[in-house]
């Protein structure tokens, strides 16, 4: 099975001194996701948690919503010409009776490590297919002081990033700031799929009391994945896109960007946030 990191020779220049040395790099390999034996998508990912990644991807596609929707997830054997297994092809076998949207079988998606939603339809598709809309979930309140601490907690949990500097991360926190799960991947959308997929396989969807923290920007595809998993609060250290803000406003998602230290921008769903005194957040 592929490793999370690999070693490569590098010429290092520091203050005029030149030397050759091995460097630790994050591994990137393709993963083909099949559903009931039929090719569905190819994504560039960091090997590891592949079954969770595939399950999370299908949550965001509206196919899965509970652990019992999955009969089995397996690596496909004989993926190489010599019959060996590359561990780069995963087949998700749905449980009997689970409906399969037509688009998933007729569309073959190539997903790069920087874009998780190539060719996706607009806001209407997410709004009409999610079974766990954040606005419909139980009430949850999060203090801005709790949010302010999350980037450092996420960074401290990024073990592979510490060695490579080349990975995105996604983490689930409780409303009080407790770390529930964290995954790393070369693709930011893959990292989110891995935490969502793990939650699905453990029977924890919808994630109606969780905060999803991501290490990069809050793009539309990440907001979509949060909404499809029932996450009420999405926080990012960088900027959101305009479409992500639109989706958050329309679905009831709380969206926080530029979360750095004690500063942040709240783009939607401020009703879930509490100020330093524990009162509802209000602009002055």
UniProtKB/TrEMBL annotation:
Protein origin, superkingdom: Bacteria
Annotated compartments: Cytoplasm
Protein name: Sulfur carrier protein FdhD
GO molecular function annotations of the record: sulfur carrier activity; sulfurtransferase activity
InterPro entries per UniProt: Cytidine_deaminase-like, FdhD
GO cellular-component term (any): cytoplasm
BP-aspect Gene Ontology terms: Mo-molybdopterin cofactor biosynthetic process
Gene: fdhD
Organism encoding this protein: Streptomyces roseolilacinus
NCBIfam families membership: fdhD_narQ (TIGR00129), PRK00724.1-2 (NF001943)
């Amino acid at each position: 099975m592929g490793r999370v990191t690999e070693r490569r020779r590098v010429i290092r220049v520091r203050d005029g001194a030149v030397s050759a040395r091995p460097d630790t790099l994050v591994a990137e390999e393709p993963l083909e996701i099949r559903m009931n034996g039929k090719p569905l998508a190819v994504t560039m990912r960091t090997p590891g948690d592949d079954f969770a990644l595939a399950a999370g991807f299908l949550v965001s596609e509206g196919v899965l919503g509970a652990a019992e929707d999955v009969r089995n997830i397996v690596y496909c054997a004989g993926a190489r010409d010599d019959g060996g297994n590359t561990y780069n092809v995963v087949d998700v076998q749905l449980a009997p009776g689970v409906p399969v949207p037509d688009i998933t079988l007729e569309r073959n998606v190539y997903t790069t490590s920087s874009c998780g939603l190539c060719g996706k339809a607009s806001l209407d598709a997410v709004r009409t297919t999610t079974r766990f809309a954040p606005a419909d979930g139980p009430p949850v309140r999060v203090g801005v002081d709790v949010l302010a601490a999350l980037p450092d907690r996420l960074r401290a949990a990024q073990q592979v990033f510490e060695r490579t500097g080349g990975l995105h991360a996604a983490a689930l926190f409780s409303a009080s700031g407790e770390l529930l799960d964290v995954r790393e991947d070369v693709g930011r959308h893959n990292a989110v799929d891995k935490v969502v997929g793990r939650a699905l396989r453990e029977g924890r969807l919808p994630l109606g009391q969780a905060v999803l923290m991501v290490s990069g920007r809050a793009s539309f595809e990440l907001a979509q994945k949060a909404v499809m998993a029932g996450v009420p609060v999405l926080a990012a250290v960088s900027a959101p896109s305009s479409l992500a803000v639109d989706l958050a406003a329309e679905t009831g998602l709380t969206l926080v960007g530029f979360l750095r230290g004690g500063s942040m921008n709240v783009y939607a769903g401020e009703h879930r946030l509490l100020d330093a005194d524990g009162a509802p957040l209000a602009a002055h």
